Request: fold
Amino acid sequence: MVSHSLIVSAPMAPLAGALAAGLLGARLGRAFAHWCAILSVGWAFVASVLIAREVVGEGVVFNFDWYVWARAGGVSLSAGFLVDNLTAMMMLVVTFVSLMVHIYTVGYMAEDPGYCRFFSYIALFTFAMLMLVMANNFLQLFFGWEAVGLVSYLLIGFWFKKASATYANLKAFLVNRVGDLGFLLGVGLVLAAFGSLDYAEVFAAAPGVGALASLPAGWDAATVICLLLFVGAMGKSAQFPLHVWLPDSMEGPTPISALIHAATMVTAGIFMVARMSPLFELSETALSVVLMVGALTAFFMGLLGLVQNDIKRVVAYSTLSQLGYMTAALGASAYSAAIFHLFTHAFFKALLFLAAGSVIIAMHHEQNMAKMGGLRKKMPVTYWTALAGSLALAGLPPFAGFYSKDVIIEAVGASLAPGANVAYWALTAGAFVTALYTTRLLMLAFHGEGRMDDHTREHIKESPLTVTVPLVLLAIPSVLIGAVTVAPMLAGGFFDGAIVVGEGRDTVAMALEKMGGASWSGMAAHAIYSPVFYLALAGVAAGVWLYSGYPLRTEMFARGPIYRALLAKYGFDDFNDWFFAGGARRLAAVLWRRVDAAVIDNFFVNGAARLVAMSSRAARKVQTGAIYHYAFSMLCAVALVLAWRLWLR
Amino acid sequence: MVEYGEEKKLRGTVPSFALIVFYAFSAVLLCAALGVILVRNTVHAALLLVLAFVASAGVWMLLFAEFLAIVLVLVYVGAVMVLFLFVLMMLDANLESLRSGRGRFLSAAVALLVAAQIAAALNRDSFLQLPRFEAPAEAAGDNTRLLGSVVYTEYAYPFELAAVLLLVAMVAAVALSLRRRKDVKYTDPAVQMRASPAGRVRLVDMPSEKPPQTATVETNKTTEKRKGEKQ
Amino acid sequence: MGGAGFQVGYAGAEMFVFLAACAVLLGDLFLPAERRGAVLHWGAIGACVLTAGIAWTGFGGGGFDGEPAIALNGFFVSSPFTALMKTAVMLSVGGSLLFSRRYLEGAGMLCGEYYALALTSSLGMLVMVSAAHLLPLYIGLELMSLSLYALIALDRDNLRASESAIKYFVLGALASGLFLYGASIIYGATGELGIAEIAARIISGGGEARAALGLGLVFMLAGVAFKIGAAPFHMWLPDVYQGAPAPVTLFIAAAPKIAAMVMMLRVLVEALGVLESDWRPMLIILAVASLAVGNITAIVQTNIKRMLAYSAIAHSGFIVLGVLAGDDAGVAAAVFYVIAYALMTVGGFGAVALLAGEGKERAELSDIKGLAANNGVAAAVLMVLMFSMAGIPPVVGFAAKLSVLQAVLAAGLPWLAVVAVLLSVVGAFYYLRVVKLMYFDLPEKGAVALPVLPRGAQASLAAVGALVLLLGIFPGKLLAACETAARLL
Reply:
């Protein structure tokens, strides 16, 4: 029997580990720090397994308030935990990937002076992420939301002496502010509409919500709430146009890119929308927006992956694209497919990042793929695991990514939402792009001639065991997990109770029906009849042909406008820099000189300060130090009060 | 003796003897109290305070509170004020300086104002119609006995507290006044009597040393020489 | 309410602390000189903690979980409220004593009388807290005050201390006179001295003697305002706080405020609750004046003790704000505020008393420049306390200010809450300046650095700081206790 304290211990153990590693690590040494973090996260993983066994195996749902922090105006602000199948699955993913990354870090960061700080941060991240997924109310969700954002900020700027790292973390922080503002407004509207922040109460009352007094007439409350919440998800899950921070976040250490910016944190938005499915199902408009944003992100961000030379950035753009797939699934009401893709993606994307990290170590922190090549022989473990991850990402059967991605594409195809057909074609085309850039990465990094300098070439060797063991441990689920879990997770009513799908919108069921049922072999066999499979194969073939020789056959595109547009990332960064950052600076300069310095500082602030100082000096003069003055002032006060009472009232 | 009830009946018609005495005592009391704060000589002020006490004892007597009246005279006039006079005469305090300047008019004005306000407030309730509370019937007979019977029973708690207050006052007085002055040579005979040679002289066994060859030895010699010359 | 028999068991805490005072006096005589200081010090602190325990558990009757009861022939009230306030009083007395030993030893003041007077003073406070009648209320007040006067003057060779003792004594006597005069007018108008009886009599009497009642109210309020240190009856406070030896300042600043607040509640809310429309405007004047005078004048101070004295005036303004709301929420807020205030004061003046050194006063603001460099723990605790006094989350001062402001808002006085917040912002300046001096300034050239505190002192300071932080983040338990207490006065 799983007790409440075991559930509480799952997030609290990493918190304790983070505190111990951060506060005592400098004194007690590196080994102490990494054991603290690893053991605490290990405990969280064990607890997650125990909890999942009970929740998934016996269908128990835990929902309890653990600590009531305050009550304000009839609203209880509390920390509480809701553990159902959705949460249990997320806990498993988070703790497992986190544990792998912890172990990997021991090898990856061995030389870094910020070793203890790093362990403290990632353990803290695990705590925050668990609080987010285990929340049973919006307040705690928001707490976890902000806390993971904070740790992400800290870790992107982990090498804070590097100018590009501080630029990147500031960018991530600011872009997420935009998303979080929307999210906060959404939570505020939830409070205004339902008078509660508790999931169960809100979801129970959700179908009855109509117009809201605080909104302009004619606005549907559910739509506004969902759109605002989705703005938060766009920030956190890097959806177009708030995607700009994720590629830059690769300035952080690679384990972080794997854990936070691929497997877990960026999927918080997907998780949140799935969790809020009872709300989103009420608004077709919101779902359509979600669908379109996801599909656009999936296709256009995938294209960007084709022109990047930084190995980590390629993977980062692939993450953007895959997040787009998940978002599109959400928009098509295929929540379980989105979560299923999140689940498989966590493994193979973490694997790809860690493999990239392994390459980067071997290359002495060289990330440019133009200077790699031919690593296949020197780093066999890294190569084979990366190959497994790439095939999963490309969506070839029977690797994990195939099951989840094909279901998403079919579900979007089955959806009747406005814009679903455009989204379907974008996603289908995306399958080709995905396969193409994945193959490009493999070809440039591992095949062909080595293009590194001689010094580096001599020192290339396979990474140590702490790096390769997590690679292998992640490669296994990358290959198998899709085939093993597709039937129970998609067809077995796994998410009943956690996810609500409206009448006639069960696109997952429709997709599965079209694909011949949810058996792993059946789906693999059906792939032969679907265009997606051939597009993916075509992508692989094109990749092999385009990138096998050097100089590349793509040079012919290099001068074209499309290529340049892609290289400039469609101009988003430039536009943001010019319009938002530059515009804000220009506006700020005006406000500073005309308003702040002239009016506020001079008149209000300094004026008030001068007034206070003056009255302060005057008040001090009253204090003469003579007893009779004091006694006299007391009597005067009595006389004044009496006079007021007697004659002035 | 005039019964309480009778006095009440007489009010407003013919001024009874008791009423005349009351006004007389009250007038003395007020004048004496004003005098306390107005006269310049502090000893005079203290003596006027004695007068005020006596006058208020007289008012209490009219209320049949003879025990309180007598205690007031015995304790305050007989003991406290006498002590107070001693202190005043010893200190020879000069309060002249405090009574000069413009401040005194302002103070007097505020005092008058407060007095007027109190009068106005009481007048607003039309003073004579204020609720009246009868003294307990048994108090009319033996006031002292009655006080004695309630102080140790019903009022035991405040009474004990007052006792604690007096104890604290005593402790505080002792703590503040009993102190060892640093500028007085003070000897304790008991310590002198207990003195023994063992506590005074310490014999130290030291190994012999070479004669030091420093300037100090020479200066010693020169002083010895000078001594010799004088002798 | 229980019967009004004698039931002496309810007064267990009072009896125990009195016996402890006597034991301290006797122990001072008979203990060997070399162990006297330590035994008296720890004995007195132990007695405080034990008394707090007795008051909380109600050993012999009452206690926080006990039924409210009237005892000792109607002079004594025992309720969750009195249990909470007595516990707070005794714990802050114990805390005050804890931080005073270093200074006392240095100044040669470590004697039995100091501890005995401290204990009798706290006996006075306990009596005030439990007074169901104006007579014990007044005697308790005098018992507390008399002991305080003597405590301040105890170091006879300290001229400033003697001066402030005289000031406190004379003005305190005047305030007592005002209070007594008011009480006598109330007695004249109602014929009662019991607090519940006065209230009942005013209700049953209808509108009779309203002007006389109002007159008595003004005078009593003047006396109470003096004790709580609210402007314009605050003038004694900066002089006395600055002049008194640091441990005594610590003592006066913390626990007596709790007793004074109880006195205010008993007189205004309980006895004269019917006259709320009369006293509320007066309290508004007191509160606004205190907040303004305290916060604004503190800015130009150069002495820490004097600065904290003005801050105490501002805090009393907040306590008055809680009382003037008058309902259960307001009383609970005032109770919470006064407890938080006592805790912060024990820490703040405790740090000053510790840093003031061994008998030498080092309490100028310039003395703490660069304190963080050589006294890290003391600086950190002072920083937490300054944040708390300024009302910055997540420390307890914020929760306290918040609950008071909520009560004021609920009482329908939003403008008053705005004024209070604005003046608190002014106050934040001088609190944060302390932090700036400690952390960002360098010691003045030629200045002698403050002594590094011993481990024990650091630990006890850190404990106070941790408590301030902890109660700020998790105020729930204490708030609930205050609400219970406010319901059952």
Remarks:
- The longest strand of chain A covers residues 62-72.
